[in-house]
Amino acid sequence: MKKLLSLAFVMLLAVGTAAAQTPHGILVSWATPTIPTGGAALAGLNLFRATWSSSTSACGSYSQLNTAPLPGNSYLDPASGLAVSTEYCYYATTQDVNGNLSAASNIATTTTPAAWPVNPNPPSLTLKNQ
Fold first, then answer.
1. pLDDT, mean of residues 49-68
2. Distance CA 127, CA 130 (A)
3. Does residue 85 lie within any of the structural domains?
């Protein structure tokens, strides 16, 4: 019974500590906005993305990337939702806990690579109780 419990613990430990693959995409980061005097606490940031149109030399229609305000100071826009060799435009608004929105930030643009980096293959582990 003791060996069975030890094996179960090792298996749970192996499953519980499995690391995720490195995510790829566009990392958007920002400085934390200051709260105006008398203003409500910040809930987070709303992030919007559009594709750059070379034919009109302008950003297309924006879509909001988040459903709830983003906490922290960065967001990884995952590669799974992006096309390679494509220019994207981003802007953001801050939102306070009362739902009030700021004016739009500056527009930032970037072009995705021709191919996303590839994660290495995982190793193959062998376990042996001794």
1. 95
2. 10
3. yes
pLDDT over 90 (residue 4): no
Backbone phi, psi, residue 102, to 5°: -85, 175
pLDDT band at 17, cuts 50/70/90? low
Cβ-contact 100, 65 below 8 angstroms: no
* Mean predicted confidence (pLDDT) in 76-95: 96
pLDDT of 95 reads: 95
Residue 62, in any domain of the structure: yes
Please report, as a single letter, which amino acid is at residue 72.
G
Residue of 91, 99, 104 lying closest to 44 (CA atoms): 99
Only one residue has tokens 């958007």, namely 28
